[in-house]
Amino acid sequence: MNGFERITKALNGEWPDRRPVMLHNFMMAAREAGYNMKQFREDPEKAAQSFIMAAGKYDADGILIDFDTTLLAGAIGVPVDYPDDEPARVKGGLITDWEQFDDPEPVDISTNERVQIWLETCRLIKAHFGDEKYVRGNCDQASFSTASMVRGAQEWMLDLMMPHEKVYRLLDYCTDVSIQFIDLMAGTGVDMTSNGDSPAGPEMISPEMYREFALPYEKKIIEASHRHGLPYLLHICGDTEMILEDMIKTGADGLELDYKTDIRKVLRVLGDDMVFVGNIDPSGVLALGSRKLVIEKTRELLDIYKNSPKLIVNAGCAIPRDTPEENIFALIETVKNYQP
Question: Which of 239, 278, 270, 236 lies closest to 253, judged by CA?
Answer without folding.
Answer: 270
